[in-house]
């Protein structure tokens, strides 16, 4: 019987890192000034004599428009990356000597002549 030494390797855990993201919310408040225009009509009595060429223009039909405007709040959100996280592994190699003892069995074979056998 003879033993032989076989050396292998197995993996074990050395620890690690778990990166978990979470979302938190924070209320924000901003003030914006909005403007609104209203068109108003004002009439004022007057007595002013027109020149003949002004009268011709004054009696011509025409339309004048004035529009009021209003401002409304518009809200937009944009997302920005503020940090990047990278996980890396650093690999180191080392050599280790393994020392052990192996056994073997030696067998001696001896011829026995008739009449010299031992009884047990």
How is this structure best summarized?
This protein has one helix at 52-58.
Description:
- With 120 residues, this protein is largely without helices or strands.
- It contains 1 helix and no strands.
- The protein has one helix at 52-58.
- The longest helix is centred in the middle third of the chain and has 7 residues, at 52-58.
- 0% of the residues are buried.
- The mean pLDDT is 91.
Structural descriptors:
120 residues, little secondary structure, 0% strand, rod-shaped
Q: What string gives the helices and strands in order?
A: H
- The overall average pLDDT, rounded, is 91
Q: In what range is the share of β-strand residues? A: under 5%
Count of separate DSSP helical elements: 1
Largest sheet: none
Helices, strands, pairings?
Layout: H1 52-58
């Amino acid at each position: 019987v003879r033993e032989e030494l076989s050396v292998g390797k197995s993996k074990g855990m050395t620890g690690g890192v778990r990166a978990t993201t979470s979302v938190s919310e924070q209320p924000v408040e901003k003030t914006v000034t909005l403007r609104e225009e209203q068109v108003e009509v004002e009439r004022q009595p007057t007595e002013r004599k027109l020149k003949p060429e002004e009268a011709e223009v004054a009696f011509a039909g025409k339309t004048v428009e004035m529009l009021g405007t209003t401002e409304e709040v518009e809200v937009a959100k944009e997302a920005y990356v503020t940090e990047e996280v990278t996980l890396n592994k650093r690999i180191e190699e080392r050599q280790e000597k393994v020392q052990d003892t192996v056994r073997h069995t030696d067998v001696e074979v001896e011829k026995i002549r008739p009449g010299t056998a031992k009884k047990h």
